[in-house]
Amino acid sequence: MDSDDQKDKPLPETPMDIADQKDKPLPEAPSPMDAADNQNSPPENIKKDAHDNSDHPENNSEAGDQHLPQNHGVDDASSSPKPGPEVPDPNTENAEDLEVKGEHEEPAQVKHQEESFPLPPDLNKLSQDIDQFLSSLSNLSEGGESTPPDLPIFVEQFMVLVEAKIEEYDSGDIPVKWDRLTVGESASYLEAVNRVSSVSKALAKFSSQHKYASSINDFGRILQRAMSYVEEEFKLLLEDHKIHDSSDPSHKTNDSKHNQSSNQESDENPHHESSSPEEETNISGYSEEILSDLIRLSKAMITGGYEAECCQVYYVVRRNALEENLNKLGFEKHSIDDVHKMSWETLERETESWIKTFKKIANLHFSSERKLSEAVFSDYPSISQNLLGSLSHGVTLQFLNFAEGIALTKRSGEKLFKFLDIYETLRDTLPVIDNLFPEEWAAELKNEASIIRSHLGEAMISIFNELENSIKADSGKTQVPGGAVHPLTKYIMNYLEYACEYKGTLEQVFREHQKIERADSNPGSEYDYNSQTQNPSNEKVVARQSPFQAQIIKTMELQDANVEGKSKLYKDPSLSSIFMMNNGRYTLKKIKGSADLNSLMGETWYRKKSSDLRQYHKGYQRETWGKLLNCLHPEGLTVKGKVMKPVLKERFKSFNAMFDEIHKTQSNWVVGDEQLQSELRVSISNMVIPAYRSFLGRYGQTFTPGRQTEKYVKFQPEDIETYIDDLFDGNAAPMGRKKV
């Protein structure tokens, strides 16, 4: 080895050196301050000072006192400067001199460095020691011994290393993101935190021991900082609940754990690519990797005694996610006062949004929330149920508040159908989410929903009562032009037809919420909805009516009475009959077109109503066309076999005048139902045309052809048919020219 290398590098101690040192008497141990001075004054500096002082003998003594260490393993003779002899050049210093110096200077320095800078302990080895220590403490606790052992040194060492690891991840303003850690890093961190938690719990059992007090505080402080980091990362992962668009490069996953596993697999499968969100099994928008992290972090917090913080973070994040979904679905949170201030048109739109959103939230989002909570807290079913119940309970109360606000608004006929929609939604949706809640919460929501449904039910029954009152109060004296269908008839029949689309629900409403006394008042009893049945002896028996059926029949009877009263406003009996036929046919058509309404009214009622219409039809024919046909009666036209021409002329003149008047008047009358209109025209034609043709054929030749015939025979049978087809169109049609 060159002398330069020997100068720059301290020679290692050989086994022989060490053996020689063992045989030599040890020098006096240096004091801490001396050791520090010696460490700060390298041997090279000492040699340099000694070399400089050899040129200035007058300063040798003072320099030696100031710079040389005391008793550092070198005897006084060799360490004190000597005037006269030349100090050897360091470059020519031989190996023997270096060995001598090494023997005297190096051992004390190396020994001091080994004591000040020991090799760092291994965390894995310390973890094993901690596990054994925990086991011994557990056995000690179970054995009931009163005096626990002193804390081993490795407990303090473990605490220092774990705190350093936490500092590495959670330092400064930008901590390391959890999804940037590899699987190994995150697992190592959580294992360390779990051991800190275990040690803290184990030592807490001996909190009365003063010797453990400091360590209990230290481990508690470390655990609190670790959990603060875990809690924040748990929150950030929970907030990442949106499935990223795989087509957007900025949304590509940067999960280092995922990338690490993907890179490992890509070595084996060159065609392997990172799985896209569509290929992953997602729960509420979380990928499998994030879900796995959520599970591990939640376990760490709960195991570490931070269950309340974990649940609070989870609840707040998922509640915000649910409210975000509510906003996306178009539902806004409204108080009862807000509902009462809205116009009905606005409330109709809000109700439609409420129904759609409530059904989707209950059937889809709550189900997804159940899967998520059961996955994240798979080892803690009670926590999962309580969190899910809290989330669902809060959102459900929002929906119930809106429903209650609607139920308490001013009642009117137009609101019936929205009331029914809300009633059905509450009835059908709440059982779906009933098992989401703990028993006491479920009971509270059932009670709240029951109150709202009662308010809605009572409001709907009240609306039907008000409908009855409106029919009774309709005392208008204005005739409907042309004997057309009365507007109230159209309103009532359309209203009842629409209402009967909710027949099952209204049956339930009247059965459960109508406050009446009846013999059979058992809840849930069923009724026969046919008005009449037949027993084996073919005797007709009136069946019991359900409350809703009785309500419908009563409403129909009131309306029939109202129409009959309105018919008396017409002075012309024929027009009165047309009015009754129009309203009666409209009513029958609506009933026949609605299976539910038809079943409620029954076949007997329908047949009776049809019979009434036929009677009105006959009355119309008698009043209008019977008088006309009297003109065509042969009685009084002949005397002793000779036609009395003056009488015949009057007959034709009367027929022409009456037919003109009927055509002029009844062309303005209205029969909106095409079938009824056709039936009337056919019946009139069958009644009038054959009689007129016969009369004309028998007596038409009496008149002199030419001007006399044209004057008295104004219509041919074909003309009569044409003019009859003009009737009931609602427009006055001018008389056309007769057919030749």
UniProtKB/TrEMBL annotation:
Domain Exocyst complex subunit Exo70 C-terminal residues, every copy: 353-726
Q: Where is the composition biased (Polar residues)?
A: 522-538
Keyword Protease in the entry? The reply is: no
- Pfam families attached here? Exo70_C (PF03081), Exo70_N (PF20669)
Gene Ontology terms: cellular component: exocyst
Q: Where is the composition biased (Basic and acidic residues)?
A: 1-11, 45-59, 98-115, 244-258
According to the record, the residues making up region (Disordered) are: 1-126, 244-283, 520-541
Question: What GO molecular function annotation could you give as one example from this UniProt entry?
Answer: phosphatidylinositol-4,5-bisphosphate binding
Q: Name one GO biological process term.
A: exocytosis
Q: Which UniProt keywords apply?
A: Exocytosis, Protein transport, Transport
Function text: Component of the exocyst complex.
Q: Which family does it belong to?
A: Belongs to the EXO70 family.
Q: Mind telling me what this protein is named?
A: Exocyst subunit Exo70 family protein
> What organism is listed for this UniProt entry?
Sesamum angolense
